[in-house]
Here is the input.
Amino acid sequence: MSEPATSGPATSGYISSTGEPEPHGYSVEVPPLEHRPTLDELKERKARTRQNVETTGEILTVSMGPQHPSTHGVYRAVLDLDGEVVVDIRPEIGNLHRGVEKLSEERTYHQIIPITDRLDYLSSFAMNHGYCEAVEKLMGVEVPARARYIRTITSELCRLSNHIMWLGVHIMDLGTQTFFCICFRDREYILDLLEMLTGARLTHSFCRIGGVAKDLPDGFAHKCRKVVEFLPKRVAEYERIVKQNRIYYRRAKNVGIFTSEDCFAWRVTGPPLRAAGVVRDLRKDEPYAAYDEVNFDVAVEYNADVYDRFLVRMKEIRESCKIIEQCLDNLPDGPFLAKDSVHTMQLKKNVMRDAGAMIHDFYQVFHGPDAPKGEVYRATEVPKGEFGVYIRSDGGTKPARIHFTTPSFYHGQVLPAMARGEMLADVVAIFASIDVVLGDCDR
Here is the structure.
């Protein structure tokens, strides 16, 4: 993996080499936040920025999507417009439905892990992790301390990759191609680390029931430290470019206001909820992996608009870097996979040289671990919000019912409530700010 660049074209054309905005009119002085708005103040601001949708004028119906960019794939929304004002939106969800849950019900608990990669494929380990947490809760498997730390590191690397990718695509949706290339370049450093650790850049299948597939490779810690030391400096550049850009500020500030009350009504979680002033993060509230053994702050903002959703994700990048650094500092010794022959896979190095391990591996692959009768629900904090896994077991090696509660499914439905009364030009910015991946949405 090449060394991260400490400087580059990220500032070109926006700020001078001294860090001051260049005098060509593309920057704006962002006013300081005087106070945290109350819910009533946000409601009043929301009512003031939205247009009246009760109109007797001629209504024009248009189709937005499915296309890249703007709707990020197969998402389609039918818009009713009065001039440029959005009167109503009817989203179509289900164009990408692949029957993931029914596929899972025909497979053993080990065989389901690669399927979860294909939910939010930009954060696939986080989805692996959430599923394995639910299975371990069902089977009563205890995960070793080292495995919990490795899981935390990998989940946070996925969060970094997701947020950097989101930022580039979000700005590209608003018409700037160069910034997308900058973010895509910086994301490569994260993908190099994930490839070094898991062998894959996108769909990792690295988590295992009872731990992870393998230990940290030689040299990983050193390269990972370099990246997490570099990224906060890069985030500062992102913020100088984006926050001081008058075009972005006017297209994001007080646009798409969605209060905490709205979030609770529509089950919006993750960064959009925290941007509405709600300090809700399952890593803190219901800790799992090693999150209760590291210090970090929950990223929160209070204005509930597109602009604050950007700020929350930038804060989360900084906090993820802190979490990874602490995990590397305090990484315990010991096994990275539970020594539970009933439920866990054998290590591949043992399978290739020990007959007993090979027999056990064949049994786990083709028959699978037996689960007790019962049902469990486990939720984890993935980059886009709360990811829940419900499993009902009638005993045996396959789940009788499995259901994934994914954040994009709820966030994809919220666009009508979030954008009704806004201008047509703002719909793209609003939709991009909630961060939807259609594989996560259409299960």
Q: What stands out?
A: Residues 121 and 203 are 6 Å apart (CA to CA).
